[in-house]
Write a structure and sequence with these properties.
single chain, mainly alpha, Multidrug-efflux Transporter Regulator, Chain: A, Domain 2, 67% helix, globular
Length: 110
Amino acid sequence: MEFDESTVHALLDFDLLSKLVVGIGEVSDITGVPQRQIRYWEDKGIIRTIKDGEGTTRKYDYMNIKKILLVKELLDDGYTLDAAARKIEDRLKLVDEAFKKLADRKGSTE
């Protein structure tokens, strides 16, 4: 499947993704993961809420929503919560390293 430039730009709009912050109720609706389970995963340190004040509704950014979806998928595939969390952290490290390499290459060619 090929994408035109505007579609690729929309998919890679990191500025937009960095501003995406969603309340726990919406995250639950979007992901199908109960709020109680999301709070438990947060207590376990697997995901993190965005802090924007004391006593406010829990809010999550794009990366944490992605983690929630990945955890759910791995649990559905039979992984334990701890194994799913480790697998996700390993994946994110690989992705981060790949993007750092790309950034280094881009920086050296400019």
